[in-house]
Amino acid sequence: MKHFIKPLYTWYRNILRNSKYRWIVVAASLFYLVSPIDFVTDAIPVIGWLDDGVIATILVTEASQMLLEQRKNRKAKTSKQQSLNESLSESVS
Fold first, then answer.
1. Is residue 12 within 8 Å of residue 25, measured between CB atoms?
2. CA distances from 24 to 2, 20, 32 (A)
3. Which of 20, 53, 51, 25 has the alpha carbon at shortest distance from 38?
4. What is the pLDDT of residues 23-33, one digit of tens each?
C-alpha cells in the first residue's frame, strides 16, 4: 500500500507546484471533494471518508506551504530593494 500512496502523493504535489496546472488541480480537488463520485464510496463508514480527508489534507498543506514560500520570497525581495535604496541614497548624499 505504501508503494502506491507515495508515488501518487509525489505526483499530486509536483503538479500542484507547477504554476501552469496549479489552479486546474485545485479546482479538480475541490470538485472531487464535493462530488458523489469517489475512489471509495462515502457510504462505507470511515474508509469512505479517508480518501476525501487525504486529498483535503494534501491540498491544504501544499497550498499553505506555497503561500508561506511566496511570502518569504516577497519579504526577501522587499528587504533587498530597501537595502539597495538605502545604499543609493547614501552614495548620492
1. yes
2. 27, 8, 12
3. 51
4. 888 888 888 88
Q: Which of 77, 79, 80, 81 is nearest to 69 (CA)?
A: 77
What proportion of the chain, given as a percentage, has pLDDT over 90?
A: 0
CA nearest neighbour of 28 among 61, 59, 73, 70: 59
Query: From CA 32, how far away is CA 93, in angstroms rounded?
Result: 60
Which of 17-29 are b and which e, b meaning 16 or more Cβ less than 10 Å from the residue's Cβ? eeeeeeeebeeeb
Query: For position 70, what pLDDT does the model report?
Result: 87
63's grid cell: 497550498
- Position 24, amino acid: I
